[in-house]
């Protein structure tokens, strides 16, 4: 008798049984957590079919209780620190809301769930693509006198990364306080030399949620997807662009990179400052509440409407950005314009879009025509048939890669920020989005969207039904993963 073979098979069976029992235990935990039914069923199916792989996948991506434990303290600190954003223009805000009752509904949701107030007296400007964004950021960085705060998901040591680094080094050496956060996973390729050079010049730079042992690290799936620049508490930037040459259209595969960023000047910058400083405190335990970091600009800045910076992430009980998207969509009377590179809506948003289209609202969705992340790409396309049948118009951008994250309703309310229309942005990532109410910049967003449609091709239902069977299979398999994306 081959005892060696017998021993190996016994060990293998024992390990398989242990993993199967563990998978059953994990399934019971997931069930008792009362999650979204779709996500619950997805995890149970994965654990049932692939108990070993599913178990490790759950360790990386599925632990709700870990999320609550890790970020409970951050949520409490954010709540307590929100007093730094005391409403300074109550009278102006009340007058604005009294005149625009329809907007009061949206603003109340954002204010209650995010603890960040609506602000007036803020100048906004849409920056189209990297060719407008990076020169403006560098121009404002060079003007800094007191402090620079920077936070990005991806930072690359390439041409544009070097240009920004040189400005930061110069400013730090001249006495400007520079704080720099980059995401440990998004910027995992960032060279040590890049970081070392900045530290040597006096820049305080560190990675957000470093991952040392991926399988055992409970924060690997909760990434900081925010893109924030704050200069002297007066000027700010937020939007879809990271720091890298591909965002200037220098990547051969993607070609032209279509993106949208937002420039802020005035009172609304305080809210962006607050988001950055809370992330900084989470990583360093350095609580910064000096008045100079939250000063209200003394100059009179004329604005046509109001703005609200809303932060979302795994440290919050409510899915505030998703809730606001839902509220915007359901409040639409005439039009809904959406641009998103990753479109994986949950049942709430999917139903809201179909109901709006069936009710006569013109719904147009703009997405890239080439995959960046294949599973998400095919999952997105799995929603096409039911949306097209409901009357939603879907377009694929043909001039490069579309990375803008835009939602515009009736030409009166819009969002610009870091959050995609997908599960990851709603449930897992730290995001920040600017919501604009009757701001003049919305007209610019609409104009850019209309131009993007001219650079796109519509998806026609009859043609889409003729797609190859292998694509249908890919879409169906990817759709099964949608609740986890």
Report on this structure.
The radius of gyration is 23 Å and the shape is globular. The protein is α/β, with parallel strands linked by helices. Helix content is 46%, strand content 18%. It starts with a helix and ends in a 5-residue tail after the last helix. The model has no long low-confidence stretch (mean pLDDT 85). Strands 9-16-15-14-10-11-12-17 form an 8-stranded mixed β-sheet, sandwiched between helices. It has a 7-stranded mixed β-sheet with strand order 1-8-6-5-2-3-4, with helices on both faces. It has a two-stranded parallel sheet with strand order 7-13.
Mean pLDDT: 85
Number of helices: 18
How many strands in all? Answer: 17
The share of residues in extended strands comes to: 15-25%
Separation of the first and last Cα atoms:
49 Å
Outline the low-pLDDT stretches.
none
Quaternary state of the chains: single chain
Largest sheet: 8 strands, mixed
Strand order of the largest sheet: 9-16-15-14-10-11-12-17
Shape type:
globular
Give the fraction of residues assigned to helices: 40-55%
**Coarse structural class:** alpha/beta
Q: Tell me the Rg in angstroms.
A: 23 Å
């Amino acid at each position: 008798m081959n005892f060696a073979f017998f021993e190996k098979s016994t060990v293998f069976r024992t390990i398989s049984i242990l993993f199967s029992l563990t998978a059953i235990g994990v399934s019971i935990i997931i069930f008792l957590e009362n999650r979204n039914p779709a996500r619950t069923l997805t995890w149970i199916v994965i654990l049932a079919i692939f108990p070993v792989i599913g178990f490790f996948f759950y360790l990386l991506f599925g632990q709700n209780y870990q999320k609550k434990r890790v970020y409970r303290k951050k949520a409490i600190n954010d709540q307590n620190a929100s007093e730094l954003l005391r409403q300074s223009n109550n009278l102006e805000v009340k007058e604005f809301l009294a005149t625009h009752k329809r907007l009061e509904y949206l603003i109340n949701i954002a204010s209650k769930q995010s603890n960040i107030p609506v602000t007036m007296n803020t100048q906004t400007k849409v920056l189209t693509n990297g060719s407008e964004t990076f020169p403006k950021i560098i121009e404002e960085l060079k003007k800094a006198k007191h402090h620079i705060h920077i936070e990005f998901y991806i930072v690359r040591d390439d041409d544009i990364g070097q240009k920004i680094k040189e400005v930061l080094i110069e400013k730090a050496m001249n006495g400007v306080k520079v704080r720099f956060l980059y995401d440990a996973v998004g910027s995992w390729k960032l060279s040590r030399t890049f970081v070392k050079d900045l530290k040597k010049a006096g820049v305080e730079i560190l990675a957000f949620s470093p991952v040392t042992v991926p399988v055992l690290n409970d924060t690997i799936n909760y990434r900081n997807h925010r893109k924030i620049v704050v200069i002297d508490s007066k000027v700010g930037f937020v939007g879809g662009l990271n720091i890298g040459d591909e965002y200037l259209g220098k990547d051969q595969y993607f070609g032209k990179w279509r993106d949208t960023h937002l420039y802020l000047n005035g009172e609304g910058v305080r809210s962006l400052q607050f988001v950055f400083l809370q992330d900084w405190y989470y990583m360093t335990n350095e609580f910064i509440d000096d008045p100079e970091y939250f000063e209200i600009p003394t100059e009179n800045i004329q604005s046509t409407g109001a703005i609200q910076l809303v932060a979302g992430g795994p440290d919050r009980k409510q899915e505030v950005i998703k809730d606001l998207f839902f509220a915007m969509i359901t409040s639409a009377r005439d039009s809904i314009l959406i641009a998103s590179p990753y479109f994986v809506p949950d049942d709430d948003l999917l139903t809201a879009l179909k109901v709006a289209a069936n009710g006569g609202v013109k719904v147009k969705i703009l997405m890239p025509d080439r995959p960046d992340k294949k599973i998400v790409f095919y999952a997105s396309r799995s929603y096409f048939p039911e949306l097209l049948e409901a009357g939603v118009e879907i377009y694929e951008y043909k001039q490069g890669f579309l990375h803008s994250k835009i939602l515009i309703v009736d030409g009166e309310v819009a969002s610009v920020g870091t959050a995609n229309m997908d599960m990851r942005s709603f449930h897992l990532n730290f995001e920040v989005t600017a919501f604009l109410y009757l701001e003049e910049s919305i007209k610019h967003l609409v104009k850019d969207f209309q131009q993007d449609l001219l650079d796109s091709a519509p998806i026609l239902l009859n043609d889409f039904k003729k797609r190859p069977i292998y694509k249908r299979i890919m879409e169906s398999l990817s759709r099964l993963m949608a609740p986890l994306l």
